[in-house]
Design a protein that fits this description.
This protein is an all-alpha fold. It is built from seven helices and no strands. It is elongated. This is Ferritin-like metal-binding protein YciE.
Length: about 220
């Protein structure tokens, strides 16, 4: 008990001393201090000030990093989906889109270059979740007649996310006067939309019918 009280007193004295030193330095600099200025305290006002300085340019770059990360994750996932697919059409479709995705990544890198920024992704939890759900389907429906329908559903969830992102980036690029970036982003969007349509056609043509449970006699 005595040791605990002694430690508490030492902490009080140390904190008090640090506070006095800090106040003395602030006074000598001719500035006022606040409770949040004390070392170890977080000042939420600083966060607000930083947020207030962010513009559409920052939002564009942030979203560009998001989709860049997403495309790289998708590039890794597509070969797995191709191997898991049961139909030859499904396998070929996933591999074709893998090649398209590589081209999309290269276009995004050109957009980064136009901005004078290094091509760097930002972790996208949304695409990670969508891909994880696709992996669950591959595991849970492996060998079942519903597998291809599930893979197509997962792939379309990916496509819809990408379509939304590219649509937003194209609009913002126009607002920001990034004329050279617009056609690059539009090319990616057109490929995503075409892939989504192909997946719908494949689902309707065979995968959905195959997935239906057989009626008992």
């Amino acid at each position: 008990m005595k040791l605990l009280l002694k430690n508490q007193r030492l902490r009080f004295v140390r904190n008090r001393t640090n506070r006095l030193i800090f106040d003395s330095r602030r006074k000598s600099a001719g500035t006022k201090s606040s409770a949040f200025d004390f070392p170890g305290h977080h000042n939420p006002m600083e966060d607000n000030e930083l947020a207030a300085t962010k513009t559409l340019d920052d939002l564009f770059l942030d979203t560009l990093k998001d989709i860049y990360f997403a495309e790289k994750q998708i590039l890794r996932a597509l070969p797995k989906m191709a191997r898991a697919a049961q139909s030859e059409e499904g396998k070929a479709g996933f591999l074709q889109h893998r090649d398209e995705t590589q081209g999309q990544i290269e276009r995004l890198e050109q957009v980064f270059e136009l901005l004078g920024k290094a091509a760097r992704g930002k972790t996208c939890e949304a695409i990670q979740g969508i891909i994880a759900e696709g992996e669950e389907i591959m595991e849970e429906f492996k060998g079942s007649p519903a597998l291809d329908a599930g893979l197509i559903s997962s792939a379309q969830a990916v496509e819809h996310y990408e379509i939304a992102r590219y649509g937003t980036l194209i609009e913002w690029a126009g607002q920001l006067g990034l004329a050279d970036a617009v056609p690059l982003l539009q090319a990616n969007l057109q490929e995503e939309e075409a892939t989504d349509q192909k997946l719908t056609q494949l689902a309707k043509a065979s995968a959905n019918d195959k997935a239906k449970a057989k009626k008992s006699a």
